Amino acid sequence: MASRRPSSSCRFLALCPLLLLVVLALSPSAGANGVFKVRHKFLGRKPSVGDLLDHDSRRHSRILSSVDLPIGGLGLPTSTGLYFAEIGIGSPSKKYYVQVDTGSDILWVNCISCKRCPQKSDLGVELTLYDPRESVSGSLVSCNENFCVSTYGDIPGCVANLPCEYRVVYGDGSSTAGFFVTDFVQYNQVSSDHQTKPVNASVTFGCGAQQSGDLGSSNEALDGILGFGQSNSSMISQLAASGTARKIFAHCLDTINGGGIFVIGHVVQPKVKTTPLVPDQPHYNVNMKAIEVGGAILELPTDLFDIGDKKGTIIDSGTTLSYLPELAYKAVMNAIFSKYPDLKFYNNQGFLCFEHSGSVDDGFPEVVFHFENSLLLNVYPHDYLFENRDNIYCVGWQNGGLQSKDGRDMFLLGDMRSF
């Protein structure tokens, strides 16, 4: 079999071939777009297979569990994020490094008055505490302002100038609490000649005054979280409401250099295909229709792609691996390795591994996920098989029935880079 590789370096398992685009909703105005360059937290070091599962376990304990989040959606502590970006906040603008997260609904950064905020990070970035008093464009959001009322409704005891407070409690008991402020957020915008320039937009975000659990002690700490969630409180929703950008975002994560870009607004080049989101879901869910392995469609029951009240397939840039329902997992694995009956497998920290010499692209089949609107996600052997050490390869697919916290199967497609 001839080696088949994607046409660009952007080849992460779940998101890039959905090709860069997640459509939230179409706003009437075209608007401009914003670009955020992102870095991967594992950049410069090769994680063990245990690191990958440990990362996903911590993340899924939050995004797949019950939370107390009055503003809607799911925010995630820093240690569960894979990608982070640099943004500017305030006037004059200061640098902040924030986790870029499709599972979170607000932008928040650690505040100058923060208790138990991390003072340093092992990710090679300098942490900064936001001080609204040092920014001439910053202002506190009161409990009777439209943003607060639309987020929480009428707040008992609200009087003028009383701060609009937020609190997020996660499934593992860690939390963030503080108050909302409005200030300029600086990011890059693509001009008509395909050059980028810094622009400012007024955004309401959280000023974290108290952190607990992993948020106050993580060695992989950042200044905060930039949520790309669907709630009206998210930054992308605010930019769309002000006419600054269309309510569309795209992301392409670079497997080779360990980074990539997130784009807010319409993507002109390259041309992309889209698939609609499943409505009324807390995550970004899409409709998977079929799975193809080596050119053959697997015989799977159609209701497998909609399990209970969990409709569709979760797309999550913060998860390293891909999780399939047990029935689909076994069918995919059998189809991939049907031509290798003598291959000897062994378990390595929860991964199925085997010895193989030569390029995996020359012997193993391509897997294709079929989504609504005839969108195809091509997954190449070097995407789902990663080399753990010399000539030892492990399978990136995981049995979702074994991993799901509530014991139910799930489709969850993550980053699954080739490290």
Which SSEs are present, and which pair or pack?
Layout: E1 21-23, E2 34-40, H1 49-63, E3 83-89, E4 94-101, E5 107-115, E6 139-140, H2 146-152, E7 165-169, E8 175-190, E9 196-212, H3 214-217, E10 224-227, H4 235-241, E11 248-254, E12 259-264, E13 285-286, E14 288-293, E15 296-297, E16 306-307, E17 310-311, E18 313-315, E19 322-324, H5 326-336, E20 345-348, E21 351-355, E22 367-371, E23 375-379, H6 381-384, E24 385-389, E25 392-395, E26 397-399, H7 400-403, E27 412-413
Parallel strand pairs: 4-10, 5-9, 18-27, 19-26
Antiparallel strand pairs: 1-11, 2-3, 2-8, 2-12, 3-4, 3-8, 5-10, 6-8, 7-8, 8-9, 11-12, 13-18, 14-15, 14-22, 16-17, 19-27, 20-21, 21-25, 22-23, 24-25
Summarize the structure.
With about 425 residues, the chain is mainly beta. It has helices spanning about 50-65, 145-150, 215, 235-240, 325-335, 380-385, 400-405; strands at about 20-25, 35-40, 85-90, 95-100, 105-115, 140, 165-170, 175-190, 195-210, 225, 250-255, 260-265, 285, 290-295, 295, 305, 310, 315, 320-325, 345-350, 350-355, 365-370, 375-380, 385-390, 390-395, 395-400, 410-415.
